[in-house]
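forwarding from the other thread:

> can someone predict this with heme C?

sure thing
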Amino acid sequence: MRRALVALAVACAVAFAAGGVVQAQKAPDSVILKGSPMGGVKFNHAEHVKVAGQCTTCHHPSKPEKPSKTPTEKCTSCHTKTPAAPMKTPIVAAFHGGPTAKQGVCIDCHMQQNKAGKKAPTTCTGCHKKENG
Ligand code: HEC
Ligand code: HEC
Ligand code: HEC
Ligand code: HEC
């Protein structure tokens, strides 16, 4: 029984290594998102993974309109300044709901965490800094 399980595990590992269509990508420690004329946003990815506790808080599951190539594909490979069909959500909305940055994946958690005493930025220049490019 035990031997059979080990054999199965090895077979799976080999099959995964050989056939792995969806290769796990290495998560960056930190990224600078430079798309906004207001200044780049330095995003500490590793620290955020600890706070969120899971990848899917930010990397949403693949959607039928434009399926993901990997589970953690760059937001900007689909969400652009002016979305092209089938995409509808522009980059600004993907990150913070709209131009006023009152809600969305980044802001919702920051407001919630700040209620719990954290100091996460919620103002434009708290995230967008000219010195980040
Ligand atoms: C929690 C951090 C955060 C806050 C607060 C924030 N932003 Fe952003 N914003 C981002 C990120 C990240 C992006 C994506 C940048 C990119 O395109 O690479 C972005 C994108 C944008 C874009 C889109 C640029 C484009 O490509 O079209 C605009 C415009 C913008 N923000 C304006 C604002 C304004 C105005 C405020 C304040 C009312 C604000 N942001 C507050 C993080 C933030
Ligand atoms: C708090 C939000 C958040 C969480 C949680 C998060 N990520 Fe990310 N991740 C991002 C953002 C934002 C980017 C930059 C996207 C871009 O450049 O358009 C990114 C980029 C990446 C990239 C680089 C993609 C590329 O092609 O350059 C990988 C890989 C990645 N994340 C993996 C992970 C994994 C694995 C987890 C879970 C352990 C995770 N992420 C959790 C927000 C997050
Ligand atoms: C492979 C393409 C792809 C990637 C990569 C991608 N998205 Fe999306 N996203 C979509 C599609 C398709 C929709 C639904 C159509 C639309 O709203 O444009 C969507 C919708 C959204 C929405 C609108 C609300 C919803 O769930 O319908 C938000 C917010 C969003 N994405 C944020 C992000 C963020 C943040 C990232 C990166 C961490 C990301 N997306 C990466 C394809 C993608
Ligand atoms: C799951 C909750 C959560 C999400 C989602 C989240 N953040 Fe944060 N973020 C935090 C917390 C908590 C802090 C404060 C960390 C501290 O200093 O204690 C923070 C701090 C920051 C800071 C300032 C500190 C630093 O790392 O340089 C920036 C910039 C930032 N976040 C950008 C973003 C962007 C952009 C997104 C969306 C892609 C995002 N965050 C999504 C929880 C979150």
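The two ends are 59 Å apart (CA to CA). thats all i got for now
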